[in-house]
Structure formats: structure tokens, C-alpha cells
Design brief:
Radius of gyration: 20 Å
Largest sheet: 5 strands, antiparallel
Structural class: alpha+beta
Number of strands: 8
Order of helices and strands: EEHEEEEHHHHHEEHHHHHHHHHH
CATH topology of the domain at 134-166 and 177-249: Endonuclease III, domain 1
CATH architecture of the domain at 134-166 and 177-249: Orthogonal Bundle
DNA sequence: CATCAGGGCCCTG
DNA sequence: CAGGGCCCTGAT
């Protein structure tokens, strides 16, 4: 394997998320599969990022408290970053990481909810976030389709190893996403050799749409949820399940709870109705119970879901283990 | 060893 | 609008 690209230039700044802010529960989601572009340990997250064509190595460090948040951000790069570049980078990070999200109303409305209230108590300051650009997230979504965790992990690793850029910074080596043009020049057969199966076609077609400039992530941000949904569904290989993830994670629609796949149905059914996963509550019944969370439907589900996976991180949750199949 | 279903999606009828 | 097929892989 060739030498990684060493990032020698370094710049440090500080970020001030809106309180309350829970660093670990925001920067690490225990239900996400591990990938070669990031590492987390309590209080620190290393994450690569491709911004305006430049591969960057980011390091976020918790330097505050839930009520007085302060995050040190160090950015490694190949060459010194200009002030305008730094400004757009910080604005992008603020957007993706949801640092200014105001959780006050959500907490006020649901602190007394018998199920959500205690979860909010445990995870005050947790917010949803997305580290990736839309294109990158679409690739992740494709790799998740019709595959269990282990397979998704191996497909993602193969893609990084073949098309990504290995970066060395802060004594870590991590992969950075590729520019769409790289995969646009690869053939479908070449992708299939990475054991992504029929997803090769979707990866090619989605990449092609970006290379042709048919998708503009920044323009989409200002569109309505329905317009975003329509634009995403128009992409080959992107269906309702992937769109549901993207509307919440990438476009921050806190109410986007409209899709329940069979394995998730079993888990929700146990969580919300304490039903045996082998005899789960119906999708309609589940969607109906989520309605009580109104415009925060998906945020509420996110809280309850993450609470479960954090619990699992500390001690195995017997009924859950057979449902997630590593 | 063989067969099968899966943390979707597309396409066909 | 229901249902078959698709790459692979692990489970049976």
C-alpha cells in the first residue's frame, strides 16, 4: 500500500454550540457502522472531510460542559488555508453538525412524556448530525441497502481503499472521500470486483448525476422537504428508505418519520409497545403513536433509538442482538 | 454440500 | 401495485 498523504499545515479554532450541547452523544452515534474516515473516543472525534476539492483532517475536542459548550477544532491540510476558505469551511461545519440547533422547545414539550422524558434527561444536548456531503451520504445509503452491517462495512472499506485518499495527520491514518469524477471514470465491472454487487450500477448512476451537475446540494437545502424528496427519488438506486435517512440526517427535517423497514419495525415495536419482536406491531400503528411528537417526530424517535444503542454499548441488550445481525 | 433470505430498489406485467 | 430478480454472504 502506498504512503498516505501527510497533512502538515495545521489551524486551530473554537466552536460554540448552542447550549445545551452533549459532545459525545452528538459526535458519536453508536448505531452507525464504523468507517475508515473517522475515529471516536470520549471527548474526541477525528474525521476527514473533502471540502472544495481539498482533503482535510479534522479533530474535534470537547473543551466545555453541556451548559457551557466549547469545542476545539483543529484542521490539518496540505497547504495553508486561506481566510475565505476557512470561513466557508466553518459555515459548512456549523450546518452539517447542527451546532446552533435550538432544542429548548422540544424539551419543553416532551420533558413530561412518560417515555421520552427520561430519555431527554439522560441525553440533554444530544443533536442529530451528519458528517458527510450529500454525495457521500448517498454512497453510504446505497451500501446499506439489502445488506447486514458486516457487509456494509466491507463494501465501504473497499470503496475507500480503491477510490479514497489515505490521509496522515495527528498520528492517525484515515481515508477521505473521493471526488465524484474518480468513480465516474471507473467502470461498473471494476466496482463489481469490490463485491458491491448490483449496487455498482447505482453508485455509477448517482456519481454521474453529480458529475453532470444535476444535483446541487446547496440549492436543495433551500427547497421544501417534498421538493428534496422528489429530487432524491429521481436518482437511480435511491428509494424511500434512503430518502428517509437523508431528509433527517442531511437536510435536518426533524419531523421526517415516514418510513419503517421490517427490522426497524421489530425494534420500534419492542421499544414503544414492549411487543415481542416476533409478533411486531403494524407499521400504521407505529406511525400513529409517533404522531404525538408532532413536528419533532423523527427527533423524538432518534432520541429513543440512540438511547437504546448507547445502552447496548455498555451492556448487551439480549432481544436486540438477534435483530441487528453483525 | 445446497438453498435461502436479506438493514431495497427497479422493472415488468 | 404486486412481485420477481439482483450481488453477495451467513445461516440453516
Amino acid at each position: 500500500m502506498s504512503e498516505p498523504v501527510r497533512l502538515e499545515s495545521r489551524w486551530t479554532t473554537e466552536l460554540f454550540p448552542k447550549p445545551p450541547f452533549n459532545f459525545d452523544a452528538t459526535l458519536h452515534k453508536p448505531d452507525h457502522f464504523p468507517a475508515a474516515d473517522n475515529v471516536w473516543q470520549p471527548g474526541v472525534r477525528w474525521q476527514t472531510m473533502l471540502w472544495q476539492g481539498k482533503p482535510l483532517g479534522l479533530k474535534f475536542e470537547d473543551r466545555g460542559t453541556v451548559d457551557e459548550p466549547r469545542v476545539a477544532l483543529t484542521v490539518w491540510s496540505q497547504t495553508k488555508l486561506s481566510q475565505p476558505f476557512r470561513d466557508t469551511l466553518l459555515a459548512e461545519i456549523e450546518y452539517r453538525y447542527n451546532f446552533q440547533l435550538d432544542l429548548a422547545e422540544f424539551y419543553r414539550l416532551f420533558a413530561g412524556d412518560p417515555q421520552l422524558g427520561p430519555v431527554i434527561g439522560r441525553w440533554r444536548g444530544m443533536r442529530p448530525l451528519n458528517h458527510n456531503a450529500l454525495y457521500e451520504y448517498l454512497i453510504i445509503a446505497i451500501v446499506l441497502q439489502n445488506a447486514a452491517v458486516r457487509r456494509s462495512v466491507s463494501m465501504m472499506r473497499a470503496l475507500f481503499e480503491h477510490y479514497g485518499t489515505r490521509l496522515g495527520y495527528d498520528h492517525k491514518e484515515l481515508y477521505c472521500f473521493w471526488k465524484p469524477g474518480i468513480i465516474d471514470r471507473a467502470t461498473e465491472e471494476e466496482l463489481r470486483a469490490l463485491k458491491v454487487g448490483y449496487r455498482a450500477k447505482s453508485i455509477k448512476r448517482v456519481t454521474e448525476a453529480f458529475v453532470r451537475g444535476e444535483v446541487d446540494e446547496f440549492e436543495l437545502r433551500s427547497k421544501s422537504k417534498e421538493e428534496q424528496r422528489e429530487a432524491l427519488l429521481a436518482l437511480y438506486g435511491i428509494g424511500p428508505a434512503s430518502v428517509w435517512y437523508i431528509l433527517f440526517d442531511v437536510f435536518h427535517h426533524l419531523d421526517a418519520m415516514d418510513h419503517i423497514s421490517p427490522w426497524e419495525q421489530k425494534i420500534y415495536s419492542k421499544l414503544f409497545f414492549d411487543r415481542d419482536p416476533d409478533d411486531p406491531a403494524g407499521v400504521d400503528e407505529l406511525l400513529k403513536t409517533f404522531e404525538r411528537f408532532g413536528k419533532y417526530e423523527m427527533l423524538a424517535v432518534h432520541y429513543i433509538w440512540e438511547d437504546l444503542f448507547w445502552r447496548r454499548k455498555h451492556e448487551p441488550v439480549a432481544w436486540l442482538e438477534k435483530l441487528i445481525r453483525l
